[in-house]
Amino acid sequence: MGDVTFLHSEDIQRETALLKSQAVIKAVLGTNAEKYRFLLLNFKNVRNKAEWHDYTDDVYFVVAGSARFRTGGKLINPQRLNENDIVGDSIEDGVDHHIKQGDILLVPTKTPHQLDVTDSEITYLLIKVK
After folding, report:
1. pLDDT bucket at 6, cuts 50 / 70 / 90
2. Rounded to two decimals, what is the model's pTM?
3. Per-residue model confidence as pLDDT tens digits over 45-91
4. CA distances, 96 to each of 22, 67, 69, 70, 99 (Å)
5. What's the DSSP call for residue 25?
6. What is the C-alpha separation between 1 and 14, in angstroms, rounded?
7. How many angstroms separate the Cα of 21 from the Cα of each of 7, 55, 62, 102?
8. Which domains are seen in the chain, by residue range?
9. Which of 47, 48, 65, 77 is found 20 to 30 A from 86 (Cα to Cα)?
10. Quick one: three-class SS letters along 51-62?
11. CA angle 57, 63, 67 (to 5 degrees)
């Protein structure tokens, strides 16, 4: 039987405050490289590259703020980063979602997705599951 990973709300709140105060964008909260990673991220006034993952699902839990999140469609100018990840400049013919505090979004393997925070700020817990 495997170990249980438990993230206390106090730990998430503390790390969120640190991210915002230190202008750091990412904190690793827990990891088991074979199965999952827990990341806490904060972005403000930025449009991230579009992504595609061959072997991982992404689960987003919005802790604070809001953003536009595009899914589906086709990656524009795709480039392979590693065995799991492909990035592109943007997504063509995707579906836009407005995500906000309290929302949970599951992005399955092999689904293009892109976070756009050009006019806002967002903090979210990202769980990458193999």
Report:
1. low
2. 0.82
3. 888 899 999 999 999 999 999 999 999 999 999 999 999 899 999 99
4. 30, 10, 6, 4, 10
5. -
6. 30
7. 21, 33, 18, 22
8. 9-129 (2.60.120.10)
9. 65
10. EEECCCEEEEEE
11. 75
